[in-house]
C-alpha cells in the first residue's frame, strides 16, 4: 500500500491548526517506504515555512541514540551492562556511597538508578562539559534506593554519555556523528546549535495566558546532550528507526538491537508512557500489539516516535509548540488504523461514572529535588499543587500550579493540566520496603515523613 502523502499532509495541517501547533513535520515508514509531510512555520517571529527537510529538536528520543552507542560498546566488549560503572569510570562519586559502588549501565538505561533525574546544571560549552557534569552528580540527591522503582532519569543518560566518552576517547557528540550518523548516511542530524544553524531549523514556542510566542531559550545545556540534544528531520529519525527494525544493520549486532527492545523493568504507572521499559526504548501494548518508541520535550518543542516491529512500521512527528500531545494522539490514531490496522488506546481520563475513593490516605507532601507536590482537599475535591523549588525555582521563576484530581480507582487518579486541559495520571504506591511514593509526570516522588 503506497503512503498517500497528500492525505496525511492535509490531516497534519487540519489537526495542527486545531491544536495551535505553529509548525510540524510527519514521517511514516511503511513497507520500506518513507512518506513525509510538513505544515506551518518554523518560527512565528520570522514566518519561515516548515519543509520536510526542516530540523527539529527530538528531545529525549536522543536517549535511544545514547543507548545505541552503549550497546555498540557492549558489542565491542568494552563494557558489560551489569558491571559497576566505577570499573570504567573510577572517578565517579554519587551522594550515596553504596550506589556509587553498585550502579551499573543497565540501571542508567532503564531509569532505575534512583539518582535525581532532573539535574540540568550547565557545565559550559567545552568538550569537558560531561566530565564536569559527572562531578556535579556527587551532590545530586538519591531519589529512591537503587533498583527499588522506576523514575525517569535525564541525569543517568548524561552519565551514560560520559561513559561513552571514556570508552571512545572523544566527545559524545563525535560518537553520535562517527558511530551512528555517518554509517546510516544521515545528512540532517546534528547535536550542537552551531551545526543546526547550517540547516533550516525550528524554534520552540511557549504559551502564557493563552498567547503563544517564541521560546526565550533555543536549546538545552550541552551537559544534557546525551539525554536530549539531537536535532534532526523525520526522514533521518525514521532511518534510525529502520536500522533498529532491521536488526541493527551495520550499527548494532542483532542481539543488541533485540535486547534494547526486550522487557527490562515494569512501570509503576502504565498509563502515561507505556507498560514497561527496555534498554533505552519505551515499550507499550496496543490491543495486543507490542510497540517500542520514545517521546521528547525540550523548550517549546515536542517529538514523538513509535515503532511497530511486527510490521516494520514506524511513525515520527516533530512539533514546535502548541498542544503537540493532542496532535500526536489524534493523528497517530488515524495513521495506525489506516495503515497498520492497530487501534491506538485513548489516554486515561476521568471515568464516565464517578468512582468513590477516599482521598485521605494520599494527602500530604511529596518531595524530591526541585519539585514539591502537596495534595490537599479543595472545594471541588482533591488537588495536587506542584511547585518548583531550589535552584530550579530561581531559574524558571514559575508560580505553583494546581492540578484538580479525579479518582479512577484506588491508588489511581488523573490530574488536569490547567494550561492544556490534558489529563495526567497520578499513581500512589509503596516500595517493597514500605516507603510511600506518588508517580506523576513519569517521576517517582517520595512522601515526606509526617
UniProtKB/TrEMBL annotation:
Residues 10-338 form the Beta-lactamase-related domain. It holds the Pfam family Beta-lactamase. Transmembrane segments: none annotated. This is Beta-lactamase family protein. It comes from Paractinoplanes hotanensis.
Amino acid at each position: 500500500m503506497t503512503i498517500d502523502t497528500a492525505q496525511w499532509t492535509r490531516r497534519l495541517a487540519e489537526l495542527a491548526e486545531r491544536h495551535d501547533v505553529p509548525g510540524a513535520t510527519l514521517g511514516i515508514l511503511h513497507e520500506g517506504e518513507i512518506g513525509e509531510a510538513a505544515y506551518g512555520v518554523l518560527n512565528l517571529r520570522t514566518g519561515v515555512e516548515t519543509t520536510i527537510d526542516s530540523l527539529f529538536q527530538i528531545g529525549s528520543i536522543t536517549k535511544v541514540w545514547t543507548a545505541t552507542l552503549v550497546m555498540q560498546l557492549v558489542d565491542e566488549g568494552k563494557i558489560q551492562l551489569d558491571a559497576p560503572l566505577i570499573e570504567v569510570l573510577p572517578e565517579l562519586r554519587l551522594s550515596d556511597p553504596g550506589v556509587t559502588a553498585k550502579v551499573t549501565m543497565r540501571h542508567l538505561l532503564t531509569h532505575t538508578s534512583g539518582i535525581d533525574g532532573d539535574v540540568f546544571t550547565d557545565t559550559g560549552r567545552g568538550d569537558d562539559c560531561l566530565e564536569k557534569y559527572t562531578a556535579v552528580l556527587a551532590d545530586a540527591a538519591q531519589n529512591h534506593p537503587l533498583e527499588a522503582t522506576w523514575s525517569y532519569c535525564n541525569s543517568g543518560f548524561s552519565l551514560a554519555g560520559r561513559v561513552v566518552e571514556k570508552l571512545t576517547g572523544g566527545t559524545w557528540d563525535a560518537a553520535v556523528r562517527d558511530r551512528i550518523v555517518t554509517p546510516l548516511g544521515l545528512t540532517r542530524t546534528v547535536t550542537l546549535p552551531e551545526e543546526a544553524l547550517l540547516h533550516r531549523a525550528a524554534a520552540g514556542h511557549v504559551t502564557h495566558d493563552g498567547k503563544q510566542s517564541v521560546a526565550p531559550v533555543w536549546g538545552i545545556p550541552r551537559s544534557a546532550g546525551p539525554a536530549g540534544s539531537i536535532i534532526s528531520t523525520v526522514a533521518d529519525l525514521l532511518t534510525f528507526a529502520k536500522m533498529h527494525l532491521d536488526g541493527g544493520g551495520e550499527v548494532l549486532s542483532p542481539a543488541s538491537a533485540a535486547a534494547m527492545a526486550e522487557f527490562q523493568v515494569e512501570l509503576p504507572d502504565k498509563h502515561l508512557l507505556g507498560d514497561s521499559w527496555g534498554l533505552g526504548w519505551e515499550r507499550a501494548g496496543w490491543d495486543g500489539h507490542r510497540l517500542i518508541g520514545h517521546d521528547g520535550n525540550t523548550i517549546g518543542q515536542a517529538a514523538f516516535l513509535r515503532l511497530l516491529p511486527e510490521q516494520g512500521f514506524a511513525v515520527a512527528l516533530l512539533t514546535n509548540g502548541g498542544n503537540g500531545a493532542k496532535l500526536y494522539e489524534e493523528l497517530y490514531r488515524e495513521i495506525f488504523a489506516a495503515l497498520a490496522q492497530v487501534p491506538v488506546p485513548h489516554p486515561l481520563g476521568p471515568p464516565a461514572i464517578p468512582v468513590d475513593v477516599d482521598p485521605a490516605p494520599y494527602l500530604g507532601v511529596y518531595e524530591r529535588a526541585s519539585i514539591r507536590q502537596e495534595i490537599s482537599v479543595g472545594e471541588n475535591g482533591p488537588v495536587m499543587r506542584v511547585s518548583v523549588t531550589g535552584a530550579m525555582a530561581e531559574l524558571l521563576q514559575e508560580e505553583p500550579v494546581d492540578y484538580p484530581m479525579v479518582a479512577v480507582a484506588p491508588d489511581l487518579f488523573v490530574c488536569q493540566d490547567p494550561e492544556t486541559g490534558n489529563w495526567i495520571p497520578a499513581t500512589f504506591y509503596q516500595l517493597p520496603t514500605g516507603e510511600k511514593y506518588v508517580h506523576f509526570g513519569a517521576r517517582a516522588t517520595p512522601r515526606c515523613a509526617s
